[in-house]
């Protein structure tokens, strides 16, 4: 099997398996740039289920930039309490809502412009463009994408910064995979390829993965019968 064929097979198997896994928190805000931007910012260092809970609670109070900008800090804090560092993120929500409202309710369509907003780094900017506008010039890189791409031997383990991981991945993943890679890796990373004790024995990629850097796996001792 060539490397190109291996990549294609990895993608095919994960795409098939993902139908049984929990969807990502941002999947609820496709083609909704403002909500995608807010939810993406809230998701930093936060579990998917907590991001979803916080975003839903916040948007139940106000679902437009103009309305959100009118909420008090106390209202925002109460809504987003499930996320980590919610105290700091209250200010970020206010800044984003005010700036988008001042821009006529239009969310910027470039990474550089989005990164001018408080709490919005490269990853959130790329994710917002992908989710809200279907702009896929880059691959969104979070902890799951970085970890799994290295374990699969797709990129050099020494690469650390998300933008550099993105550039390395773009050299090995066909462009048609870019829009879906982040969501698939988030689902795969939560269900199977976990940070500690990855479930290698039952992984659909068992025979395709060199398990780079994996020291201890899940406690099951049998291999996946279908792909072993």
CATH hierarchy, class of the largest domain: Mainly Alpha
Rounded to the nearest angstrom, the distance between the terminal CA atoms is 15 Å
Portion in helices = 40-55%
Give the strand content. Answer: under 5%
From the coordinates shown, what is the CATH architecture of the largest domain? Orthogonal Bundle
What is the alpha-carbon Rg in Å? 19 Å
Major sheet size, sense and barrel closure: none
By secondary-structure content and strand pairing, the structural class works out as: mainly alpha
Summarize the structure.
The chain is mainly α and 228 residues long. Helices cover 51% and strands 0% of the residues.
Molecular structure report:
The structure is a single chain. This protein has 228 residues and is mostly helical. It folds into two domains: 3-23 and 139-208, Helix-hairpin-Helix base-excision DNA repair enzymes (C-terminal) (Endonuclease Iii, domain 2, Orthogonal Bundle), CATH 1.10.1670.10; 32-133, Orthogonal Bundle (Endonuclease III, domain 1). The protein is 51% helix and 0% strand. The protein contains eleven helices and no strands. Helix 9 (143-151) crosses helix 11. The radius of gyration is 19 Å and the shape is elongated. Residues 220-228 have low confidence and may be disordered.
């Amino acid at each position: 099997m060539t490397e190109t064929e291996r990549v294609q097979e990895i993608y095919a198997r994960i795409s098939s398996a993902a139908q049984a896994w929990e969807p990502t928190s941002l999947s609820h805000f496709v083609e909704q740039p403002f909500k995608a931007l807010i939810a993406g910012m809230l998701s930093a260092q936060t579990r998917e289920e907590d991001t979803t809970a916080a975003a839903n609670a916040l948007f139940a109070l106000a679902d437009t930039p103009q309305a959100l900008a009118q909420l008090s800090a106390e209202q925002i804090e109460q809504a987003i309490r499930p996320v980590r560092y919610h105290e700091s993120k209250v200010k970020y929500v206010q800044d984003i809502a005010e700036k988008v409202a001042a821009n006529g309710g239009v969310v910027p369509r470039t990474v550089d412009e989005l990164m001018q907003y408080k709490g919005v780094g490269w990853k959130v900017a790329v994710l917002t463009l992908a989710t809200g506008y279907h702009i896929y010039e880059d691959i969104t890189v979070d902890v799951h994408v970085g970890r799994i791409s290295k374990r699969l031997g797709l990129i050099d383990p020494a690469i650390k910064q998300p933008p550099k991981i993105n550039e390395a991945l773009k050299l090995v993943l066909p462009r048609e995979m870019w829009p879906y890679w982040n969501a698939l890796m988030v689902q795969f990373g939560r269900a199977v390829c976990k940070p500690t004790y990855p479930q290698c024995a039952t992984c659909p990629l068992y025979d395709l993965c060199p398990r780079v850097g994996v020291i201890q796996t899940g406690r099951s001792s049998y291999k996946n019968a279908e792909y072993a």
